[in-house]
């Protein structure tokens, strides 16, 4: 379907992938470590973490090159929630995001928010390797490592606590400025903070590999991915970004392998969705070294049925990206005929039809899809097709329901604004655009648009009351966010 890329890069390492030595594992898969995360409650409550997470997610949406592709967002969240379902000490909701960045990395921050770099799809050979990264980051969240780091800093150097907190948060929004501020603020206590981070990393590794196995993935994926990182460091003049700040000693690889060897063997086949997500990410969101190459497609074409389908899908995707729509349709048709309800194929078929100015075909195909009611990706595709077919009223019917169920998805609000504009419903267009602004942290601008919407409807009407109530909600949000804006 359509896709949105935000502008500049935000956020780097608050908690990063696997950085310290790991103790040997045992054959049972219980989390046999003390729950070290609970002590952080004296510094930061769960409610505060959620509020801070909300604030920084909005900043992330507004300034990071997030991949807001409905199919990819759905995939990483489905995979992430499979892992969360097998984690212990889950105290917050979880949300997973994908950033367009060709450096291997991942990080987690307040309130169950996990961010993956798109380069992970380039380097992960299978779904278990990708899941190993996510399991590690999930464990950072469940053990509340960021809150614990704050508590430790407050206890050991109370006079630098406020500056440390502000610097850590600044590092999320502006990596260079943030890390420079953190170095200056913690000049006298930096070694203690590093040691504490190593303890956190060890805990996240130990728990993460257990979550990985309990979720049905291959625990050997964790050491195999670590080996990839070491190989990158050995044969490159510049090691992966993740190793620049978190050195990976070779002893850690043997420890991780020893832990995996003592766990029950798991035969885990990568899902077709994994291969589809891999080729879509590399084919549609090119960034530096992240490219969908002929070598990768040729290798997939020699694999199992799932890989072969992904190779065909990748070639159709490349043709569509090159605006060779007729060729793309020819390449996709055998896949679509064999699996007419496959969302990956239906989404691409919609793009191709719209490229060929055949929006009616796209509408007819999508409105008859059996999974339409349950699949938000198909709902967005159909709304977009209705718009392109000159039927914005039909799009509004879908999008009103969609935005009610998916309030945090800017895709729905963007389309709704377009549909309302086409219908000359100026107040409703402004209200939808206000929601996009609010999701990206621009609350002042959102309030301004809602105020304009309120003046365009009948005084005292129910619609005006709704706009005014939403303005009050956003103003309350501004008040809650004020402390973080000053950090």
From TrEMBL:
This is Beta-barrel assembly-enhancing protease. One of its GO terms (biological process) is proteolysis involved in protein catabolic process. Functions as both a chaperone and a metalloprotease. Maintains the integrity of the outer membrane by promoting either the assembly or the elimination of outer membrane proteins, depending on their folding state. One of its GO terms (cellular component) is membrane. Residues 1-27 form the signal peptide. CDD domains: M48C_bepA_like. It comes from the Bacteria.
